[in-house]
# Entry
Amino acid sequence: MTLLALETSCDETSAAVVRDGKILSNTVSSQIKLHAEYGGVVPELAAREHLKNLLPVAQAALREAGVSPAQLDAVAATQGPGLAIALLVGFKAAQSLAFALNKPFIGINHHEAHLYSPWIYGEPCVADFSKFQPNVSLIVSGGHTLLVLVAAELQHRVLGGTIDDAAGECFDKTGKLMGLAYPAGPVIDTLAESGNPRAYDFPRPLLNDLGDDFSFSGLKTSVRYFIRDHPALLDDRQKVCDLCASVQAAIVEVLVKKTIRAAQRHGVRCVTASGGVTCNRALRRELARACERHGLTLHLAEKNLCTDNAAMIGILAERKLQAHRPLTDLDAEIQPGWALS
Ligand code: KG4
Ligand code: ZN
# Structure
């Protein structure tokens, strides 16, 4: 089966060609620079940029894969969740292409696709489910922080999520308070490598709560008050590095401990993680250490597949089609608020 997938749920325009579990191409055009001056994603600008870039990105993906539209067996796109006017661009384009080619169309839940990106690896990039084990999956990005129990392929249950800010949002907003450029997550990651994570003590929200929910807005507020009370600190580069390392340590400790605890409580031997924040070096290191200590297998999405991409949409779409899951109607609409259940 050869399938074209499109992803435009937020600020990445992406197209991928997938054939029998293999990623033949995965083209991503990021809008980060465009939104940086506004300090966050502006939906109207994102949609206009998707409109401008989608065709060139899709053409590049087809070219790289050596596949013509006539050779496609199916078309897929992200149906939700995401920014409504951004989703519309990729979803409607994919539906139109499927209609024109008279091929099946399938709409995909973006978060469900994140559950499978940790199983895509190697060179050439292949989705390898032969080692699949029931797992607890951490999806951690700028908009979401979710823990999901994946009992079997295509069978999952959300255990918990953030009750306020997402972990990526906490990185970005605390970084903004420090005067760092948007998105601050990668900048904090870099500065933290030269900092002392024990220099300043920040709260670890809901760490001792036995449930699987997260909360990061209190941590953000405590960084705000800390900077208000110590403004001179921002003029000292080493202290900024220490601050970054300390904030990062608080976020990472909560993410790691709650993920491991959920895996233990649900009796699974495997942990997976994806989403932009999974690029964070401290998170990758600490998850690896904790999993080793507790005898758990860890599958982290490769860094280029942590952030939003159409390859994961294509892989999930192909698995669903192979499992004879119902197709999406050609007149179906986007679902911007489509929560994973
Ligand atoms: O998954 P993603 O590309 O987009 C969505 O939010 O859907 O994630 C972007 C988020 C941003 O908040 C960004 O700051 C964060 O991921 N991020 C990181 C790192 N790389 C990206 N956070 C911490 N450390 C990083 N290295
Ligand atoms: Zn995502």
Summary: The mean pLDDT is 97.
